[in-house]
């Protein structure tokens, strides 16, 4: 039984390592392709629209999950609700991020601009933190449906809050710098 559990844990850990590598490769590919392409005006406009669609879907879904996490942490809802929202909204989060990476490659990012470098760093943080959060959401599945947040060990609570805060800061950094870059 114990060996089955630790085997499962090891398998989840291996999957996470592959996911960390996959999101890093996708991020680097988006930037690299962005340096090669010079799309015509109409394609740039279309990509910008797609970029905003990806933003609405990805950030919207991430906000829905983190809003429910906040409700659970403050005692306004149960971990069961958070689990349901996480299971249904995690796909749009990753789909939105994939669209942002794909369309960003068509927007000719100015890599020599420090603001763009910070923005792309924030995008990588969003993606890596998203993978890290799957460890936490995997743990949620083993918590009793009515468990209170305050009853969890302190270390787990701190990890949970830090991941959520990092996620929001990274998303909003990318949004603000994106807006700034497109208006200056
Ligand atoms: C979490 C991921 C991302 C978010 C939240 C994000 C957000 C944004 C936002 C809000 C804008 C302003 C759009 C407008 O109203 O004009 C923007 C523009 C832009 N983004 Fe992103 N972005 C992300 C990923 C990327 C990536 C991966 C790249 C490049 C590889 C990229 C390159 C650009 C460029 C070049 C612009 C300026 C486009 C222009 O005005 O011509 N973005 N981004």
Explained architecture:
There is one protein chain. With 184 residues, this protein is mostly helical. It has a single domain, classed as Up-down Bundle (A middle domain of Talin 1), CATH 1.20.1420. Helix content is 82%, strand content 0%. Helix 1 packs parallel to helix 3 and helix 4 runs antiparallel to helix 5. The structure holds protoporphyrin IX containing FE.
| Low-confidence sequence ranges | none
The Cα radius of gyration reads 18 Å
Number of strands: 0
Helix content, binned percent: over 70%
What number is the mean pLDDT? 93
**Total individual domains:** 1
**End-to-end Cα distance:** 60 Å
* CATH fold topology: A middle domain of Talin 1
Strand content: under 5%
CATH class: Mainly Alpha
SS summary, helix count: 5
What form results from the Cα inertia axes? elongated
Q: Which ligands are bound? A: protoporphyrin IX containing FE
Structural class: mainly alpha
């Amino acid at each position: 039984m114990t060996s089955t559990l630790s085997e499962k844990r090891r398998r989840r850990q291996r999957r996470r390592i592959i996911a960390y590598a996959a999101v890093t490769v996708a991020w680097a590919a988006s930037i690299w392709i962005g340096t090669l392409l010079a799309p015509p005006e109409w394609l740039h406009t279309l990509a910008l629209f797609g970029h905003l669609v990806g933003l609405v879907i990805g950030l919207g879904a991430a906000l829905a999950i983190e809003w429910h996490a906040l409700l659970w942490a403050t005692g306004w809802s149960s971990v069961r609700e958070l689990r349901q929202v996480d299971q249904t909204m995690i796909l749009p989060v990753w789909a939105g991020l994939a669209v942002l990476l794909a369309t960003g490659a068509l927007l000719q990012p100015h890599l020599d601009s420090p603001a763009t470098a910070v923005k792309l760093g924030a995008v990588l943080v969003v993606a890596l933190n998203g993978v890290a959060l799957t460890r936490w959401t995997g743990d949620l599945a083993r918590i009793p449906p009515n468990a209170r947040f305050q009853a969890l060990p302190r270390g787990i609570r701190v990890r949970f809050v830090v991941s959520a805060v990092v996620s929001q800061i990274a998303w909003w950094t990318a949004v603000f710098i994106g807006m700034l870059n497109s208006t200056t």
